[in-house]
Amino acid sequence: MLFSQGKISDLITPMALVIDLLIINLTAYFLPINLEEAIIFHSYISLAWMFIAFKTEFYVVYRYSKVTHILKRIVRQFFFYFLILYAFIGFFKQPNMSRLALAQYAVLVFITVSIVKFLNYYLLMSYRERVKSSLRTVVVIGQNRKADQLIAVFKERTEFGYEFKKQFCPSNNEFNIQSCFDYILANQIDEIYCSISELKNKEIIAFINFSDNNLKTLKFLPDNKNIYSKKLKLEYYDYLPILSLRDIPLHNPINAFIKRAFDIGFSLLVILGLLIWLTPLLGLIIWLDSKGPIFFVQKRSGLDNREFYCYKFRSMAMNQNADQFQAKKNDMRVTTIGNFIRKTSIDELPQFYNVLFGDMSVVGPRPHMIKHTNEFAQKIDKYMVRHFVKPGITGLAQVRGYRGEIERESDIQNRTKFDVFYIENWSFLLDIKIIIQTVLNVFKGDDKAY
């Protein structure tokens, strides 16, 4: 599948973008604007719309967003769009273009897109409320006025898509933080809301570490504690302020759509331009060098720690230890052709099928064997944060020299550090930079490529 299974939210943004592009282009086509360069005009307004939408976060609408939030997004989007629209006349010297028809076009597009935007918002809210789809299970830590208000929001505003499960009271003598963690894991809770006025600093740190290491979303009911010293994102549920500890750029629908669109386009380019002829040729060489299958298929840890089958060209002789031990320098299991394709990273190319299927991305934290994920999750702090995004064929840690065999604990610590930095500071340009550096490293060679 091109998008994550079972998540309607993955399709909302691309569908909304396609509908809006159809509206702005079809309206221009049928109105008498007197276009002399129709192809240029339609390309211009389409690119302009997408660029402005990306900068204004036009498609960033959360389940708890208010109508005023959407209205502000619409006004901001069209203000810049109208400026760029009229700039077309001067940029491309179109004296015969009808200014009146262009004004009619602008008003008509504004009304139509606004209606579609609000209709989509209300239909989605109604869908969540009636079908109970894509529910996020939550617990609240704290028992005070603000905590009770938040619970009331979860229960009364069912269109937000939250399912309240349990309230814990830290001021109660029977409160045990480990029991709280056990409940969250046993009931597969998605989000934790803490009223930090009732928590000690060491308990706040415990919740932060627990959520990072178990892929749980942690949010706070604000007060005047040290949590404000961190980089936080302020959100509103109804009229109640909520603080998010970690803002992940790829959880933004526009960013996720841009990355997914690039992944699909890039993977198709590699598959159709390279793998389609390289696979049978390389497959024959692999088979002649060592009897066995062409591909090596292994379970790896992916997005949200879900397991998936990762594909590689087989570079080792058939053995029983493939799922237990990483390849080491001068590893006797590596075949003659396997040594070459590992040094040049050709063995990783079939993972572009993983990218196309949606299990991986071109750039992201490298996926590890299930055994190693379980091992490192226990030893390395923040290790599980890597699983907040899709794993990648290459990543920031790899181009910084932390690829291949993990010889000492500092290797995985530094790899995790770079992976977390990438997740919290993602940008499309950073992905391009990592891809270019990866290609350069292939030609220069890498001491860890074995």
From TrEMBL:
Annotated keywords: Membrane, Transferase, Transmembrane, Transmembrane helix
Xref: Pfam families: Bac_transf, CoA_binding_3
Topology class, membrane: Multi-pass membrane protein
Keyword Transmembrane helix: yes
Domain Bacterial sugar transferase stretches: 259-444
TM region positions: 12-33, 39-62, 74-92, 104-124, 266-288
Subcellular location: Membrane
Family the entry assigns: Belongs to the bacterial sugar transferase family.
NCBIfam families to which the protein is assigned, alphabetical: EPS_sugtrans
Protein name: Exopolysaccharide biosynthesis polyprenyl glycosylphosphotransferase
Organism: Robiginitalea aurantiaca
UniProt lineage: Bacteria, Pseudomonadati, Bacteroidota, Flavobacteriia, Flavobacteriales
